[in-house]
Design brief:
about 240 residues; alpha/beta; Nucleotidyltransferase, domain 5; 2 domains; five-stranded mixed β-sheet; 5 helices
């Protein structure tokens, strides 16, 4: 059994904070799952094929990373899930899977802010990171982090225009996420650096979830809900004439 010592009928962790955490990220079109031990990735499986394939891919990915990490399902210490904001359906699928595993294995649930893990996909030495997710039309979900990934402006749903984030553009600002494309079209500033091709991933969740595990920063499995930021809107069907 990885990382545990068997003494008599009791199992003891080799160190107080040892953890094998399953990380689940489904807030965007990237279906991503990882297994990490003490924040170090053991196995990672993800797919971004331009579609929301979470319903078909998530559970097979979970089984695949467990197998690749060469552990038993019962060795998982906690499950971490991306809490949002993001796709309503994607978040529901990820959170439902995470809660089901936590209930069945009787282990804690950890939530990771989606924009925090997205911010960690870039490394900077100065300025700020603004992770942003597409929220339809010219709107994005965005937050602002400093070079140490401390959040210096809370998450908002906001419409992008030429003056967006001007308060931060006196220094270098790294924009990252699938909201970058629309942002790049309207923000014209020499300090704006647009990092394309990045999406939230279970890879960046590994260290974040381990840090929360060590602090016992966990959720109530029964009552936890994703952070949607905006109400889910259902478009009514058109009446047939």
């Amino acid at each position: 059994m990885r990382g545990f010592v068997l003494l008599g009928s009791f199992i003891f962790a080799e160190n107080l904070y040892m953890a094998i955490i399953l990380n689940i990220e489904t807030s965007t079109k990237n279906c991503s799952v990882s297994i990490a031990e003490d924040g170090k990735i053991l196995a990672l499986k993800e797919l971004n094929d331009g579609n929301y394939s979470h319903a078909e891919k998530l559970h097979p990915f979970i089984l695949e990373v467990i197998k690749e990490a060469d552990i038993e399902k019962e060795a998982i210490t906690a499950v971490a899930v991306s809490k949002g904001p993001g796709s309503y359906t994607g978040l529901r699928i990820g959170v439902s899977a995470a809660k089901g595993l936590c209930f069945s294995l009787d282990i804690p649930l950890i939530s990771i802010e989606t924009l925090t893990s997205l911010a960690h996909t870039v490394s900077i030495e100065e300025g700020a990171v603004i992770p942003m997710l597409d929220a339809r039309r010219m709107e994005v979900y965005a937050a602002v982090y400093n070079k140490d990934y401390d959040k210096i402006r809370e998450i908002k749903a906001e419409v992008i225009d030429a003056d967006s984030f001007s308060d931060f553009l006196n220094d270098k600002v790294y924009f990252v996420g699938d909201g970058v494309t629309k942002c790049k079209e309207v923000i014209k500033n020499e300090n704006a650096i647009f990092v394309e091709g990045k999406l939230p991933s279970a890879k960046e969740m590994a260290e974040l979830s381990y840090e929360k595990y060590k602090k016992n920063d966990i959720e109530d499995v029964a009552y936890f809900e994703p952070f949607y930021l905006k109400d889910f809107m259902v478009t009514p069907e058109k009446k047939k004439i």
